[in-house]
Amino acid sequence: MSKLRIAVQKSGRLNEDSMQILKDIGISIDNGKDQLKASARNFPVEVFYLRNGDIPQYLKDGVVDAAIIGENVLIEKGNDLKFVERLGFSKCKVSIAVPKDSKDNSLKDLNGKKIATSYPETVKKFLKEQNIDAQLHIINGSVEIAPNIGLADGICDIVSSGSTLFKNGLKEIEVLLKSEAVLAVSPILNDEKQAILDTIQFRIQSVLKGRD
Ligand code: PRP
Ligand code: MG
């Protein structure tokens, strides 16, 4: 009998809530954190612990069947990938921010300027739609430091509590999108796996209703 392979974030903000929702829907996993793969004891499911940014490609290739992932990552790297359920946790925004004493106060002020980001595709698409011509500088983390070290005029990154912006003396000037954790699916699912997914989705819906 086939098992549904579900990817979750290995470590980071989504990990704990992802494992909790699996637990809440009755999927118990013996969690050796160093193990990158674990089978559920009581359900035809295998959990893969992966890096966030790698998950969309695994879904596209059908290496995993489903994933609990931030919508923002799916938008950045997932192009045609679909999600079937919003999960209500890990809510955040993807926003553009500039130094708080900057004269740049709106998006159009960033014309001809430099923006540091880990979300190049999202930013590119947005700037194009808004007819803004800015240069992107791609970095993988600690993006908020970029303006302070003269690397860029502004940044585009995730804002959750807003604490990182605040601590780095930045002000938000534009929200590109709002995001939360979602249940995403691979386009390559056989009937047997689809049936397991349907059961999981149904259980998730019940759990989420109960949380309201
Ligand atoms: C993430 C994100 C923001 C910050 C937002 O960074 O890139 O910098 O969290 O959260 P906040 O609004 O609650 O401060 P993370 O700490 O994961 O580190 P990284 O950017 O170096 O990956
Ligand atoms: Mg960061």
TrEMBL record:
Q: What is its EC number?
A: 2.4.2.17
**Start and end of every ATP phosphoribosyltransferase catalytic domain?**
51-205
How does its record describe regulation of its activity? Answer: Feedback inhibited by histidine.
An individual GO BP term: L-histidine biosynthetic process
Which reactions is this enzyme annotated as catalysing?
1-(5-phospho-beta-D-ribosyl)-ATP + diphosphate = 5-phospho-alpha-D-ribose 1-diphosphate + ATP
Known pathway: Amino-acid biosynthesis; L-histidine biosynthesis; L-histidine from 5-phospho-alpha-D-ribose 1-diphosphate: step 1/9
One GO molecular-function entry: ATP phosphoribosyltransferase activity
Main location class:
cytoplasm
For this UniProt record, give its keywords in alphabetical order, as a comma-separated list: Amino-acid biosynthesis, ATP-binding, Cytoplasm, Glycosyltransferase, Histidine biosynthesis, Magnesium, Metal-binding, Nucleotide-binding, Transferase
Q: Tell me the cofactors it needs.
A: Mg(2+)
Listed under GO cellular component are:
cytoplasm
What domain of life is recorded for the organism?
Bacteria
Tell me where it resides.
Answer: Cytoplasm
Top EC category: transferase
**Which ranges does the record mark as transmembrane?**
none
Family membership, please give it.
Belongs to the ATP phosphoribosyltransferase family. Long subfamily.
Role, per record: Catalyzes the condensation of ATP and 5-phosphoribose 1-diphosphate to form N'-(5'-phosphoribosyl)-ATP (PR-ATP). Has a crucial role in the pathway because the rate of histidine biosynthesis seems to be controlled primarily by regulation of HisG enzymatic activity.
Q: What is this protein called?
A: ATP phosphoribosyltransferase
Encoding gene per record: hisG
Residue span relative to the full protein? 1 to 212 of 285
